[in-house]
Design a protein that fits this description.
- The structure holds 2 protein chains of 2 kinds.
- Chain A is mainly alpha-helical.
- Chain A has 11 helices and no strands.
- Chain A has a domain of 190 residues: MetI-like (MetI-like fold, Orthogonal Bundle), CATH 1.10.3720.
- Chain A is elongated.
- Chain A starts with a helix and ends with a helix.
- By secondary structure, chain B is mainly α.
- Chain B has a domain of 172 residues: MetI-like (MetI-like fold, Orthogonal Bundle), CATH 1.10.3720.10.
- The model of chain B has no long low-confidence stretch (mean pLDDT 87).
- Classes of the chains: A mainly alpha, B mainly alpha.
- The interface between A and B is large, with 41 and 44 residues.
């Protein structure tokens, strides 16, 4: 629970709208199987391409599947895959980052050079290259995206680990004769995980986008499992006659990403000192001016 | 200055070497026997004897280092081997595809620059007022909307509803507009924030105070004092975005039925055509390195502070 305290403290400063969007996304994703009014993969060609009605709140797609249910189940698909991608990526990133931060020296140089290269290549190209070599599939997608994502958390956890290692209590532990294992697992790792978790939530939006993009390209989530990007590409040939089926999944995905991006921005802003407002500037000026006065008095 | 350029060139060469190593390793470590694939491509029954013959022919028995040197020598001369799927030379229409993707990226970079400068200036001119809020909102929307959704919306708006522009094909400037706009949305959104934040920071610097006390107006200060100051920053960010555009091209090119590099790469990934994936990856990585080099040189030209540091 102690680990979560900084997260709660920061939550108060978040924009409400973003929190509501994310809350909705997570709630829908978690309880999707119970919330969806109909089976998302039941086809009924007689009801294909219908508009909104009492039976189908948001209409049906070209195979007569209920769009509303599919959208909800897609939130679940998205949430689960984003969770696994970030889980794997953060495990790799935190492990390598803390090792680099603990060990420093050539290990640090080497790992951070790899991280630099990884960050400079677009994640889509990395993940596509991995999928191209290994072959498509759900777990390949998770692995490919995690490989593209870990440098981010690696860099952050290295920075956090370095700052923790320079704190006096680590030095005190060393003096007390604590083993490297105790320092690493007892102090360095827990501290780093807490800090990196916050950033990971901010990254979830781009991860959701990447999952949807791979599914859109036909290399991520495979049909019949509903996923927003894949629903969109499915409906694309019918854009002219039934644009609703393209717009709805696109809007759902955009809303989720906007929520996470806003959250990420405010996390970044709370970390970076804000530029001085005019009032603050006036106070500072008054302060500086008063120094001059003291000097002249003296 | 020459010292900087030579150092930077050496750095790029090292990166190029590492990129080639990554591309080579990726394909060497791929599962499956390449010789069997090629033997089957040639229409023959893949008998062990024939497979052996093919393996001998393409040099699979040589040590890895020799294979790398051979491969690199061929790649530098523009020969990327044969496609495992079609049996044709990978480099056959690579130039044409590079031209298509180049058109896409160049046009989008120009559009993104124009839009982002306009939005950024709008925000910086009326900070925290309505125009600023609108530009900020547009930036958030542009940065959060998936590119494939932007493309679908563009096609729906301009091709289906208003029937103004063609929704597919690479024939003439009219068919270029929609893909250009689609690719430009994300970088324009990101860059507009760079311009806006950069200008705000520049406007608080002492030299702006000097300009103000000289009696210069806000417009004059923004364009004559703040704009040159954020140019290096902008070029840096633009370089990153141009690099990212290769990824966007992979999504946008199939959407608009463009036969570009991105489309080729995607097809290679779909059919696990290693040679195509390898060739495209090497071109992409080379492109990033070259773009970074150009960015660094451009920053050197536009930032007198860095220029002085190196002369």
């Amino acid at each position: 629970m102690n680990m979560l305290n900084p997260i709660f403290a920061r939550l108060n400063k978040m924009p409400r709208a973003a929190l509501i969007t994310i809350g909705l996304f997570v709630a829908l994703g978690t309880f999707a199987p119970w919330l969806a009014p109909q089976d998302p993969s039941t086809q009924s060609l007689l009801d294909a391409g219908l508009g909104p009605s009492a039976a189908h709140w948001l209409g049906t797609d070209h195979l007569g599947r209920d769009t509303f249910s599919r959208l909800i189940i897609a939130a679940n698909t998205s949430l689960v895959s984003v969770g696994s991608v970030l889980g794997v990526a953060m495990t790799i990133g935190i492990l390598l980052g803390t090792i680099a931060g603990y060990h420093r020296g050539w290990v640090d140089d080497l790992l951070m050079r790899v991280v630099d290269v990884g960050l400079s290549i677009p994640s889509l190209i990395i993940s596509l290259a991995v999928i191209g070599i290994v072959g498509p599939g759900y777990w390949t997608m998770v692995l490919a995206l995690a490989l593209a994502w870990w440098p981010m958390s690696g860099r952050i956890s290295r920075a956090v680990a370095v700052s923790i290692m320079s704190k006096p209590h680590i030095e005190a532990l060393r003096v007390l004769g604590a083993s490297p294992w105790r320092i690493y697992f007892g102090h360095l790792l827990p501290g780093t995980i807490g800090a990196v978790m916050v950033y990971a939530t901010a990254d979830a939006g781009t991860a959701a986008l990447a999952v949807a993009t791979l599914s859109f390209l036909g290399l991520g989530i495979q049909p019949p499992t509903p996923e927003w990007g894949q629903m969109l590409v499915d409906a694309l040939p019918y854009l002219e006659s039934d644009p609703r089926q393209v717009l709805l999944p696109g809007l759902a995905l955009t809303a989720a990403v906007i929520g996470f991006n806003t959250l990420g921005e405010s996390i970044a802003l709370n970390r970076i000192p804000k530029p001085l407002t005019r009032r603050m500037l006036a106070i500072r000026r008054a302060e500086v001016a008063s120094w001059g006065k003291e000097n002249s008095d003296a | 200055m020459i010292h900087f350029i030579s150092k930077r060139l050496k750095h790029s060469l090292v990166l190029l070497f590492m990129a080639s190593l990554v591309c080579f390793t990726l394909v060497v470590s791929a599962p499956g026997n390449v010789a069997v694939l090629i033997a089957e491509l040639r229409g023959a029954v893949a008998t062990p004897g024939y497979v052996e013959q093919v393996a001998e022919e393409i040099g699979l028995h040589k040590p890895l280092l020799m294979r790398y040197v051979d491969w690199l020598g061929d790649a530098v001369r523009g020969d990327f081997g044969i496609s495992y799927r079609t049996g044709t030379n990978v480099s056959a229409d690579l130039a044409n595809r590079m031209f298509v993707t180049g058109t896409l990226i160049a046009g989008s970079a120009v559009i993104a620059t124009l839009i982002s400068l306009a939005l950024g200036f709008l925000g910086a001119f009326w900070p925290y007022k309505l125009p600023d809020r609108v530009s900020r909102g547009l930036a958030l929307l542009g940065a959060s909307t998936p590119t494939f959704f932007v493309g679908a919306l563009m096609i729906y708006a301009f091709s289906v509803t208003f029937q103004l522009l063609p929704s597919f094909g690479f024939n003439g400037p009219k068919s270029w507009i929609l893909p250009w706009l689609t690719v430009a949305v994300l970088p324009a959104a990101v860059l507009s924030r760079v311009v806006r934040v950069g200008l705000e920071e520049a406007m608080t610097s002492p030299f702006v105070l000097t300009a103000k006390s000289k009696g210069l107006g806000r417009t004059a200060i923004l364009f004559r004092e703040a704009l040159p100051n954020i140019t290096p920053l902008f070029i840096n960010a633009l370089g990153t975005q141009v690099g990212l555009m290769t990824a966007t091209a992979i999504i946008v090119e199939p959407l608009f039925a463009w036969q570009g590099l991105g489309d080729y790469f995607l097809a290679g990934v779909r059919f696990r055509d290693f040679m195509v994936v390898q060739a495209c990856l090497l071109i992409f990585l080379t492109f990033f390195i070259v773009v970074n080099l150009i960015v660094d040189l451009a920053v050197l030209l536009t930032d007198p502070r860095i220029r002085r540091q190196w002369s």
